[in-house]
Input
Amino acid sequence: MEPLSPLARRNLEKLLLRAMEGSGDPVLTEIADAVASGQGTLRDIAGGSAYADHFMRALRGPVEHWQELPEQERDRLRAEADALGHALESLDPD
Output
């Protein structure tokens, strides 16, 4: 499996943070708020002992769905995400 590009990783993190903020889950919202306030990266905060189990449970469904997709579909989605990321980056570099 091909790793995500740095741009795709940044955009994925932004997307995850927006989804977490709007999830209605107070723990995910707390993680997103901590990242937004500069307390650490999503990886650092969500991977910390206080949040790791909750974060991983929240991701289980989407990860399983991704793993069930055929490799061609995952490649297509990666390419689409990279193209969209480049377009968004040109509009708003932050």
About this structure: The two ends are 28 Å apart (CA to CA).
